[in-house]
């Protein structure tokens, strides 16, 4: 099936608006001969003369009169669709965005983010969703609008990322735990039973990878899927939780925190979204609010 050249609509709009080949050519910055050839193509496409010679001028055919207002409306709509996106007046925006994030993010950064939104764009609502895997499919299919986390090697290459802050892993035990007293050593750490925060990946996690690289392995006493649950369990047992320091600052209140006695990687927590949302003004505004909320909550040494 042969598709019509939609550029002809612009020419048709000019011809029907001007009623003259010469004036339409000037409007579109074409030569009169090029405009005449375009009129011939329009006549062939529509099966109608459109403009008919009458003395020294041209008059509209009945079909041209029918099309005149409709073509102008269609071309106007098409032009507006191709205009650059206007910045929204955020205080007038009414939308709900879904943010998928690990537990700890809401406790540490949620109040700052919601306060910024309430002050500037009260019509925007955030739906926080628990992140238990690193599967990027939810970003691709639009189930979530953005998410936070450490960028892994399995992340789809099309996903956009923006660093929010840096973090490190720390050990956490209950007050009065044997590890809360004395110098922490790798031997003492490894002799304890540990909580593995499991995210659904095949590997155990970054702390186990760091230990393995140094010829060490910890004992896993139990596995679960969230930092909050790990800290709750550590609060009432002798299990050791190993969690991100900045991400769990408020959750660790009343617990004993210690630096890990072996080399560990530094973590970069990022904001992730699908590229189809890059140019969305409200989405872009919200991404900036998340970055600023995190920056205001994180000490300068960790940014």
Q: What report would you give on this structure?
A:
- The chain is an alpha/beta fold and 303 residues long.
- The chain has 2 domains: 7-81, Orthogonal Bundle (Arc Repressor Mutant, subunit A), CATH 1.10.10; 91-303, 3-Layer(aba) Sandwich (D-Maltodextrin-Binding Protein, domain 2), CATH 3.40.190.
- Helices cover 38% and strands 23% of the residues.
- The protein has 10 helices and 11 strands.
- Helix 1 packs across helix 2 (21-27), helix 1 (7-18) packs across helix 3 (32-46) and helix 1 packs across helix 4.
- The radius of gyration is 31 Å and the shape is elongated.
- If classified by CATH, what would the architecture of the largest domain be? 3-Layer(aba) Sandwich
Q: What is the beta-strand fraction?
A: 15-25%
- Could you list the spans in which at least 5 consecutive residues all have pLDDT below 50? none
Q: Kindly state the percentage of residues in helix.
A: 25-40%
Provide a short characterization of the protein structure.
By secondary structure, this protein is of the alpha/beta class. It contains ten helices and eleven strands.
Core attributes:
303 residues; alpha/beta; D-Maltodextrin-Binding Protein, domain 2; nine-stranded mixed beta sheet; 10 helices
List the helices and strands and how they pair.
Blueprint: H1 7-18, H2 21-27, H3 32-46, E1 51-54, E2 57-60, H4 62-81, E3 95-101, H5 105-120, E4 124-130, H6 137-140, E5 146-150, E6 160-173, H7 186-191, E7 193-197, H8 206-213, E8 219-224, H9 227-236, E9 240-244, E10 256-259, E11 266-273, H10 281-297
Parallel strand pairs: 3-4, 3-5, 7-8, 7-9
Antiparallel strand pairs: 1-2, 5-11, 6-9, 6-10, 6-11
